[in-house]
Amino acid sequence: MAGREAVRRILAAVTVGVFRPKVTGVENIPRGGPFVLAANHLSFCDHIFLSLLVPRPVYFVGKAERLGRGGLRGRLSGLFFEKVGMIPVRRDGGRGGVAALTASQEVLERGAGVGIHPEGTRSPDGRLYRGHTGAAWLSLETGAPVVPCGLIGTERVQSPGKLLLRPVRFEVHFGAPLSPADYAGKEHLSLTRRRYTDRIMQQIGALSGQESVPRFAVKGQALKEGSHA
């Protein structure tokens, strides 16, 4: 664990030196105990940057296949995702989503942070799409607060469908934590999860400055749009 944290801090220093990100609201990250970090999603590298720039370890769900690839490139990639704290989950149909939530819940119950992009996929056009209820569910089930996060400009670092990262500045803004205690007695209602999710997305939008879209983003559309750029 200590070795992983040392590597994470080294990578964080490199990220700060290369991209010079503007980061605000770090004081909103709880100093101890579990928390759910809910952020908008503009680029593949969003979860990597957040894993490095949050002052405490925060774990994002990722494809388990990333940790078992062959060849030098595959092994290096797997080592990187392991060191930044990826929660490996095999995505095999509908069971994959359940496994992701179960694994994330276990991390929270150990007192660590879990990161989620409620939109479920990258925005295809830079707007903020409707959020799925996973972050709210985790918060309601575990009592962990949700820290909303607004990312700005990460799509300029890595465009959809592109491998190379460009050394351009981006912004990360952490908002005040949202407490599940506001929904005491109604934790298991689907309407509660929806209302909590909508509140989370409103806060993310206020931090990112994005226009909101009242529908879910389509998975893969961001890559399709990027290929036409």
Overview of this protein structure:
The chain is α/β, with parallel strands linked by helices. The chain has helices at 2-19, 46-53, 71-83, 94-109, 134-142, 154-157, 190-208, 221-227, and strands at residues 22-24, 35-39, 58-63, 86-89, 113-116, 146-152, 171-174. α3 links the parallel β3 and β4. The N and C termini lie far apart (42 Å).
The CATH homologous superfamily: Glycerol-3-phosphate (1)-acyltransferase
User: What is the count of β-strands?
Assistant: 7
Order of strands across the main sheet? 1-7-6-2-5-3-4
Report helical residue fraction: 40-55%
- Sketch the major β-sheet: 7 strands, mixed
Q: SSE string, helix = H, strand = E?
A: HEEHEHEHEHEHEHH
What class, by secondary structure content? alpha/beta
Reported CATH architecture: 3-Layer(aba) Sandwich
Return the CATH class: Alpha Beta
Query: Averaging pLDDT over every residue, what do you get?
Result: 87
Distance between the termini: 42 Å
User: Which stretches are low in confidence, meaning pLDDT under 50 for 5 or more residues running?
Assistant: none
Q: In percent, how much strand structure appears in the residues? A: 5-15%
Number of helices: 8
Using only CA atoms, what is the Rg?
Answer: 17 Å
CATH topology: Glycerol-3-phosphate (1)-acyltransferase
Principal-axes geometry comes out as: globular
Number of domains: 1
Topology:
Layout: H1 2-19, E1 22-24, E2 35-39, H2 46-53, E3 58-63, H3 71-83, E4 86-89, H4 94-109, E5 113-116, H5 134-142, E6 146-152, H6 154-157, E7 171-174, H7 190-208, H8 221-227
